[in-house]
Amino acid sequence: MADAPTPPAASRRKASRHRGEGQWAVGHFTPLNGNEQFKKDDDGLHVRTRIETIYSKAGFDSIDPNDLRGRMRWWGLYTQRRPGIDGGKTAILEPEELDDEYFMLRVRIDGGRLTTAQLRVIGEISQEFARGTADLTDRQNVQFHWIRIEDVPEIWRRLEGVGLSTTEACGDTPRVVLGSPVAGIAEDEIIDGTPAIEEIQRRVIGNPEFSNLPRKFKTAISGSPLLDVAHEINDIAFVGVEHPQYGPGFDLWVGGGLSTNPKLGVRLGAWVPLEEVADVHVGVISVFRDYGYRRLRTRARLKFLVADWGAEKFRQVLEDEYLLRKLVDGPAPAEPVARWRDHVGVHRQKDGRFYVGFAPRVGRVDGTLLSKIADLAAAHGSDRLRTTVEQKMLVLDVAEERVGSLVAGLEALGFQVTPSPFRRGTMACTGIEFCKLAIVETKARGAALIDELERRLPEFDEPLTIHVNGCPNACARIQVADIGLKGQLVLDGEGRQVEGFQVHLGGALGLEAGFGRKVRGLKVTAEELPDYVERVLRRYLADREEGERFAA
Ligand code: SF4
């Protein structure tokens, strides 16, 4: 049984008499809800031993419910949705009625960095243990489905044999560290954040000091001027900037996050050199662990603390109680020059070779395809690949004379290197196929929407993002899309409840970061969706002025 860690001396204060927000730093160590209780009872990281020694041998029915629906997430495992349960039952059924005896297993790919050997192993696991499934997520991870508990130790053995892991891929933990997919290779790079990502992996991931956070903690690091890791919506982000006096380093952001109460991150006005990024990361995650709200799950993300404190107080507590020094003031990042930040297409690297970004539809690939991508990359002299936060992939280090052949090979596999704006800009979350929280289907609908729009609007030539979500939880970033679609049940023309979407219009990251407007009363049935999107886009095409981008 793990006790809560002791807060730093400077913050040992007398517990207030009322329950407050459950912050450890002000003395509230008594768990105020079931999640806090199971985390206090036993560290989520400890469940691995039980999976290896008991559950994988005795089977699904032997799993303790607090492990099944709680601690197994610390190792990237969620039960998936029992097939055949429609979205109307999601909020009605008990968790055990929704649980299938198969799992989703998330593999963390920090920085989106993969070798061909790692991708081959992912492909093999997918084919052998996951019925061929392997989705690319919008956090650079890979997710398998249909995983049996009996197979988990062998899957870990294979992943870890090539340096991959599922440690803290889910749960109230430091999740995968997002990184620029072109770190270390881009011609226009301000600074390569890779050493900082590796240092954070070493110091933070799997460290019991940070394995009981109030909720998940998302990190993003990019030294690309394209701002290519959605830094605005992470709990902590380091964004490449050039300090006028000290040179390249990172601008520090905290408190971003979407879900049902979205907030953009705020700048602390601090410049962090590469070698201090991990220290500052440890400082911020410690503030979150100690001061983060633990009473209500709905207020337990860092964004609520940052919103209540403001940037100035947050920076002061970070400096005075955790870093024990002042941070250097620094500049804001410049606006990115391009709207697409996904690196799709053929681009020259700073070493003269090329990288090639390509677009699966809505992140859906499979084990066979992943193995073929690994073979294709290797056959073209590449050993490195990257995943992006737009559910896309890159092959790095290709000699100029081999680019054409690689592009042809990818397109033969169904992956376009010059995709339509619809294929390029449409993302979809897991949805009702596997997710227990889902209300509607997303992946097949997203793919069908792409096909329809390509057929109906071949002339459309603007960057455009369409994000399809299966419920209000915003895993596919509903609020920051040009067209955000939130899955819910709606009434059709005959008054029947059917799957559909609440529409959000005009969200964006980067140049004009902001949340889309929920269009009052604008809900479309899933069946009407292609017609609706076509109407919106045709109106834009008819009315747009010179240089006007799509912003519905
Ligand atoms: Fe599941 Fe909802 Fe997240 Fe989609 S947005 S993956 S349906 S929780």
Beta-strand content: 15-25%
Q: Write down how many β-strands occur, each being a DSSP E stretch of 2 or more residues.
A: 21
Number of helices: 14
Secondary-structure content class: alpha+beta
Spatial ordering of strands, largest sheet: 6-7-8-9-10-11
Output mean pLDDT: 93
**CA-CA gap between termini:** 53 Å
Poorly predicted sequence stretches spanning 5 or more consecutive residues:
1-18
Name the shape in a single word.
globular
The ligands bound in this entry are: iron/sulfur cluster
Question: Mind telling me the C-alpha Rg?
Answer: 23 Å
Question: Major beta sheet, specifics?
Answer: 6 strands, mixed
**Helix percentage range:** 25-40%
Cofactor: [4Fe-4S] cluster
Pfam family, one: NIR_SIR_ferr
Protein name: assimilatory sulfite reductase (ferredoxin)
Enzyme class: oxidoreductase
Task: Give an account of the 3D structure.
The chain is 28% helix and 22% strand. The protein is built from 14 helices and 21 strands. Strand 6, helix 7 (194-203) and strand 7 form a beta-alpha-beta unit. It is globular and about 60 Å long. Residues 1-18 have low confidence and may be disordered. Bound molecules: iron/sulfur cluster (SF4). Residues 429-431, 435, 437-438, 469-471, 473-475 line the site of iron/sulfur cluster. One of its GO terms (molecular function) is sulfite reductase (ferredoxin) activity. Residues 170-322, 423-552 form the Nitrite/sulphite reductase 4Fe-4S domain.
SSE blueprint:
Layout: H1 34-41, H2 47-58, H3 65-68, E1 77-81, H4 95-98, E2 99-107, E3 113-115, H5 116-129, E4 133-136, E5 142-147, H6 152-161, E6 174-179, H7 194-203, E7 217-222, E8 236-243, E9 247-254, E10 266-272, H8 277-291, H9 302-323, E11 328-329, E12 345-348, E13 354-358, E14 364-366, H10 367-379, E15 384-387, E16 393-398, H11 403-412, H12 421-425, E17 426-428, H13 443-456, E18 466-469, E19 483-491, E20 497-505, E21 517-525, H14 529-543
Parallel strand pairs: 6-7, 7-8, 17-18, 18-19
Antiparallel strand pairs: 1-2, 2-5, 3-15, 4-5, 4-14, 8-9, 9-10, 10-11, 12-13, 13-16, 15-16, 19-20, 20-21
Helix pairs in contact: 5-10, 7-8, 8-9, 13-14
Domain Nitrite/sulphite reductase 4Fe-4S: 170-322, 423-552
EC number: 1.8.7.1
Region (Disordered): 1-35
